[in-house]
Write a structure and sequence with these properties.
This protein is mainly α. It is built from 14 helices and two strands.
C-alpha cells in the first residue's frame, strides 16, 4: 500500500502544469503533426537516447511522412535506419488498409489482456522475418520486455487528459501500464512503488498496481510528471539538497532518507 500522504502528493504533482515539459518531450512535436496517430507511433518508438536527439529525429521523420517521401539512407537514429522506419510505415499503411485505423488493428488482437494485445500488435507491425531494427522498435511483453515505448504510444493515444492526445476511444485508460523509462523506474523504486531493481514487464505491472491506489481509473496519468522530474534534472541520480529540498515527493524518497 502507498504510505499516507503519497497518493495526494502524486495527484498534485500530475495536475501541476509545467510548460517546460512539452518543450523537451517528443509529444510536443506529435501534437503539431497532421497525422497524429502515425506521428505518435514514430515518436514513442524513437523515444530512446537523449531528449534532444529524439526530438531532432522525430522532426525529420514527421516531415518526411507529411511530404509523402521515404526516409531512406539519409536518416539514422542511433542504430535505427531510415529503411527500418520505412518498413514500419509500410506495415502501418497495410494495417490501416485492412482494418481502417491502428486502433482497429490493436483491437483485433485484444482479448482483454493488455500484454497479449501488445504482443499481437507488435507482431503484426513487425511482419514476417523482421530485421533487427523492427524487433528493437517493437518489443513484446511475451519476451519479458518492459515495453516502455509501446506503452508510451498507448498512453499518448488512449488518455484524453493533460498533455495526451485521446485519439483512441475504445481502450479504457484504466488498463494502461506506466511506461518505465530510466527516470520513471528510478523514481518509482525510490518511492517504494516497486521492489524490482530492473525494468521488466513484471516491474511495469508492479509500479502500475501501486499507482492505481492513487487513481484506479487512470494510473498512467502520473507518468508524464514523474518522467520529467528526471528529464528536466529536478530529480538527480544522487541526492542534491538544492534540487531535493523543494521536491514534493522528498518525504517518501529512499534516496533522500
Amino acid at each position: 500500500m502507498l504510505p499516507p500522504g503519497l497518493a495526494d502528493r502524486l495527484r498534485a504533482l500530475a495536475d501541476r502544469p509545467d510548460p517546460r515539459r512539452l518543450d523537451r518531450d517528443p509529444l510536443g512535436l506529435v501534437r503539431q503533426a497532421r497525422d497524429k496517430e502515425t506521428s505518435a507511433l514514430l515518436g514513442a518508438l524513437l523515444a530512446f537516447g537523449s531528449a534532444r536527439s529524439i526530438r531532432r529525429s522525430l522532426a525529420i521523420a514527421i516531415e518526411a511522412v507529411e511530404a509523402g517521401r521515404p526516409l531512406g539512407r539519409g536518416f539514422r537514429h542511433r542504430w535505427i535506419t531510415g529503411r527500418d522506419i520505412d518498413r514500419l510505415l509500410d506495415r502501418v499503411r497495410e494495417a490501416r488498409a485492412r482494418h481502417g485505423s491502428l486502433e482497429d488493428f490493436f483491437l483485433r488482437g485484444d482479448d482483454g489482456d493488455l500484454g497479449h494485445a501488445l504482443d499481437r500488435f507488435a507482431g503484426g507491425l513487425r511482419g514476417p522475418r523482421p530485421g533487427r531494427g523492427l524487433r528493437f522498435l517493437l518489443p513484446r511483453p511475451g519476451d519479458g520486455s518492459a515495453c516502455k515505448r509501446p506503452l508510451l504510444f498507448l498512453r499518448w493515444v488512449v488518455r484524453n487528459g493533460g498533455e495526451d492526445l485521446g485519439l483512441w476511444r475504445r481502450v479504457d485508460p484504466a488498463r494502461l501500464l506506466v511506461p518505465l523509462d530510466t527516470h520513471v523506474h528510478r523514481i518509482a523504486y525510490g518511492l517504494g512503488l516497486t521492489s524490482r531493481k530492473t525494468p521488466s514487464w513484471k516491474t511495469a505491472l508492479e509500479v502500475t498496481a501501486s499507482l492505481r491506489e492513487a487513481d484506479a481509473r487512470d494510473p498512467a496519468r502520473f507518468d508524464f510528471a514523474l518522467a520529467h522530474l528526471g528529464i528536466l534534472g529536478d530529480c538527480p541520480r544522487s541526492p542534491l539538497p538544492s534540487k531535493c529540498a523543494p521536491c514534493p515527493l522528498r518525504p517518501w524518497c529512499r534516496a533522500w532518507r
